[in-house]
Structure formats: structure tokens, C-alpha cells
């Protein structure tokens, strides 16, 4: 699966054959429309059912595409990457960094913010339970 024995396990080379519906996935990101805060990378936003990517099964939503046919996508605009995909030919090789759970996308909860909300929710439940126990304890006396 990996393009090289020396590649870290979360990096893969994926070869896709363009079908009648293209490669079968949508992308998001680029220097002009960051998907991840402070990251100009290109990410898979949607896998189209029955498309080349879905049939292959390795590319997943949230994966970062590092290169197309050996051309690095670093610091490119979204349109420039779309143009690269359009002119990539029938056989397309992608170098992909597999999705991790440490992403910070605009519109999503910030990891720290999400954790704070979870802690506040747990704290509120705990305070409620203590209040109920206090009421039950007072009524027993």
C-alpha cells in the first residue's frame, strides 16, 4: 500500500484510473481557502459513491493530498490544484497523508474548546447530582 518501505505508515501512494465521473472525490483547501486553521493543505471533502476513489477504498474523507503525479500541492491555490487534477490524465497517482483526529477545521469546534465544553457539561451534571443528593439527604432528616 505504501509507495515506499521508508514512508511513515500514515502516508500512502494511491493510483486511481479516471472513470466517466472523474476520480470520484471532491477536495477542499489551498492557500486561498484553508480547511484546517494555519494549514494550506488540500483535503478530501467527499468521496462520491461508485467513483474511482470509492471503488479503490483507500482514500477517505479528511485525508490530505500531498501530490498529484509527483507534483507537490504545497502552497497552491484551490483553483491551481483543481487544474492539476483536470490535466493529470487517465492514470493518476496521489501521495496521501491519512486522516488524523488532530485537525482544526474552520467551523468545527476547536479541540480545546470542545474539551472545555465537555468538561463544563460533566461539571454541570456533577453539580446537579450533588444538588439532588443534598435535597434527598435533607428530606430524610
UniProtKB/TrEMBL annotation:
Its main location: mitochondrion. One of its GO terms (molecular function) is protein kinase binding. It comes from the Eukaryota. The chain crosses the membrane at residues 117-137. Residues 13-100 form the PDZ domain. GO terms for cellular component: basolateral plasma membrane; cell junction; mitochondrial outer membrane. It is found in: Mitochondrion outer membrane. One of its GO terms (biological process) is receptor clustering. Keywords: Membrane, Mitochondrion, Mitochondrion outer membrane, Transmembrane, Transmembrane helix. Binds (via the PDZ domain) to isoform 2A of SYNJ2 (via the unique motif in the C-terminus). Interacts (via C-terminus) with RALBP1. Interacts (via PDZ domain) with ACVR2A (via C-terminus) and ACVR2B (via C-terminus). Forms a ternary complex with ACVR2A and RALBP1. Interacts with MAPK12. Interacts with DLL1; enhances DLL1 protein stability, and promotes notch signaling in endothelial cells. PANTHER family: DISCS LARGE, DISKS LARGE 1 TUMOR SUPPRESSOR PROTEIN. This is Synaptojanin-2-binding protein. It comes from Kryptolebias marmoratus (Mangrove killifish).
Amino acid at each position: 500500500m505504501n509507495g515506499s518501505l521508508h514512508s511513515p505508515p500514515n502516508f500512502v501512494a494511491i493510483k486511481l484510473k479516471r472513470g466517466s465521473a472523474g476520480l470520484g472525490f471532491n477536495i477542499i483547501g489551498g492557500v486561498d481557502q484553508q480547511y484546517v486553521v494555519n494549514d494550506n493543505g488540500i483535503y478530501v471533502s467527499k468521496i462520491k459513491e461508485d467513483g474511482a476513489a470509492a471503488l479503490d477504498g483507500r482514500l477517505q474523507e479528511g485525508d490530505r493530498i500531498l501530490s498529484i503525479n509527483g507534483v507537490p500541492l504545497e502552497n497552491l491555490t484551490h483553483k491551481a490544484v483543481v487544474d492539476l487534477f483536470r490535466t493529470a490524465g487517465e492514470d493518476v497517482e496521489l501521495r496521501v497523508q491519512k486522516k488524523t483526529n488532530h485537525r482544526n477545521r474552520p467551523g468545527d469546534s476547536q479541540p480545546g474548546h470542545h474539551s472545555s465544553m465537555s468538561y463544563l457539561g460533566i461539571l454541570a451534571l456533577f453539580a446537579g447530582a450533588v444538588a439532588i443528593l443534598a435535597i434527598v439527604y435533607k428530606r430524610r432528616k
